Structure formats: structure tokens, C-alpha cells
Amino acid sequence: MSDYQLKTLQAGILLGESPRWHDGRIWFADWVAETLYAVTEDGHSTAVAKVASLPFSIDWLPDGRCLVVNARAKALQVLAEDGSLSLFAALDHACNEIVVDGRGNSYLNCVNFEFPGGQFRPGFILLVTPDGRVQRQPGELAFPNGMAITPDGRTLICAESFNGNLTAFDIADDGSLSNQRVWAKLDGQGADGICMDAEGAVWAGSGQRCVRVAEGGRVLEEVPLDLMAFACMLGGADGRTLFITANEWTGQINTDHPTGKLYSTSVAVPHAGFPKSR
To answer: What is the pTM of this model?
Structure first.
């Protein structure tokens, strides 16, 4: 394990999620504040848009359009430069996370029960094709959360927060998923948001830490935190900055006490795969 120096880029966040590196800034969603932020590496933060949804998440199509998963509207939307939202695809379910591959296929997952407090049901993944068709994919997942895709576009990895699995699927030429299997299993707290690096390892938020794990489950690195890590993303000018959204967590969503922070720290191996670090 290595020593990491954490830098706080933004504090006063109610519930930070879905970090993405794009156009020289780290973007993230504050679910409770219903605000999308973009933050420079020196900590200058801009409120980019209001999204009236908890949860919501973001990623970019290869053509540069920003997609927003709006759970409240049950829609995948396109964010315009003026902050307005237009429909890309209507959804039958309130979805959680998104990852977009190099061909413009969007993968969204659905927890499939009310959280917190609802009766557990297995979740699943939806494929939204570049022309807006929505196709439910096979497989059941125990609270699907962050997702990443390998650089060759052939494997999708999804964090299952309720069982600690990082679960992989093969991606076919038409974008469909198959061959569900455990890629790695994390001890202790299940994983939340994830990203990949150029050595094929996954960084995952897992309790009060971010861990870098290899296929098979060996933990290679660990960044300890004073808050619960909700998600992480590699980016920065050289792809070697790990950005982490972290928050206090009691099992309930706190709507009036902003404990969240956006951290950054330097790592040795740069970003690879998807979500794309553009």
C-alpha cells in the first residue's frame, strides 16, 4: 500500500456521485442539491445545471453530447450548453448509473427497489443503443452501482453494492451482454462507483476507502478516507489523478447537512477504458 496525499477540491456537498473527467474538469452530481458541478484541478467549481432528480448520473457520447440519467423522469436525457434537458430515450424504470462505450452504446442500471427502506429485489442493466432503443439485458444484480468498460469495449464490469462483487459481462458486437461472472470480490463494504486504469485494475469506492483491485480480487492499493467513498474517477491532465466523492453515511439520505467532499490524489497508473476520460 502507498501513502496518498488527499486534496479537498470542494466541500459542502450534500451527496456527491457520478464523477467524470471531461474537457479539463471533473464533473459530479450532487443528488440532494439537484446540481451538476464541474470543478478544475485547482478547485474552481461551477454549477453547470440543475437536475431535479435523486439519483441522477452522467456520461458523454462519442459525439460530445452529455447524457443525463434522470431517475425521477424515468428518462435518459441530453444536456444542452444552456442547461436545458431534452429526451434521448424514455425508460420504464428509474435508473441509477451510466457508462457509455466507444460505439455510443449506453448502459444504465436499475436498483429495482425503493432505497433506502424498500423491500429488496434484484436489479438489472439496460442497453440504450445510439438510436435510442432500450433493451433489458439478462442477469440479476444485488444493488447494481458503478460500471466500467475495458478499453477494447468487450467487457463491462458492474459493482454490486449488496454483496461486494465486481461482476463482469461479455459485450457482443451488437452491444448485448452475456456470460455474467464474478470478476473480483471485495471484503467488507460493497463497492459503489468504479473506474479502470491502464494495467486493467479497477479503482472502487468501498466504505471509508478507495481500493485498486486486480481481476480475481487482490487489492493492489488502498486510499483511506475519513468519509465513505461513494465514487471515483481517474482523470487530470495526464490521467493520473484519482478524484473521489465522499460523504458521511448513516443508512439514510440526509437532505440538510452537507458533509460531502470532492477529493483528489495522485496515482501511478493512468486511466483507461470507459467512462472515457476526455
So the answer is: 0.96
